Amino acid sequence: MTFLDTNIVVHAVDAHDVRKHEIAASIIDEAIGGVSYCISAQVLFEFASICQKKLGCDSQTVLKFLDSLRCVNVADQTPQMVSRAVEIKALYGISLQDSMIVAAAEKLGCSELLTEDLNDGQTYAGVRVRNPFNK
C-alpha cells in the first residue's frame, strides 16, 4: 500500500501548478477508484486547514473533497503513534510532523510514501519515499 502526504492531496485541489495538480488529481482519482492508498487523520486536518487558510476554499468545497476520500484507509492518531514519531524524529532528524506521517504509514503497513517533503528514494522506518513530481 501507498501512503499519501498532505501535499499530494492539496495539489489535487490547488491548480496553481498545473503539472503537479494533474499528477496529484490522477493519484486521488486512483484512490477513489479503488487503488490501495492510505492517509492519516493528520493529513485530512492539514488538508482542510491549508485549503481554507491558504487557498480560500469554502467549507462546502473542503467537505465535498473530504467525503470523496472516505474509501481511503485512514490511520487514527494514537499516543503510541506520537511516541513512535518521536523515535523516528530522533533516528532520522526529520520534523515531528513528517515523523508522524512516517509513523502512520508504518502503522498501516505501507511500503511507500508519496511526498515532496522528504528525500526521494530514502527509506524511513521501512517506508520508501517517492516524489511523484520528480520526472
Strand order of the largest sheet: 3-2-1-4-6-5
CA distance, first residue to last residue: 22 Å
User: What is the N-to-C order of secondary-structure elements (H for helix, E for strand)?
Assistant: EHHEHHEHHEEE
CATH superfamily name? 5'-nuclease
Give the helix tally: 6
CATH architecture designation: 3-Layer(aba) Sandwich
Global shape: globular
The overall pLDDT, averaged over residues, is 94
Structural class: alpha/beta
What is the count of structural domains? 1
Work out the helicity level: 40-55%
Q: Count every beta strand, where a strand is a DSSP E run of 2 or more residues.
A: 6
CATH fold category name: Rossmann fold
Low-confidence stretches: none
User: Could you give a short account of the major beta sheet?
Assistant: 6 strands, mixed
* CATH class call: Alpha Beta
Radius of gyration: 14 Å
How much of the sequence is in beta strands? 5-15%
Concise description?
Helices cover 53% and strands 14% of the residues. The protein has helices at 6-13, 18-32, 41-53, 59-68, 79-92, 96-107; strands at residues 2-4, 37-40, 73-75, 112-114, 123-124, 127-130. The protein is globular and about 40 Å long.
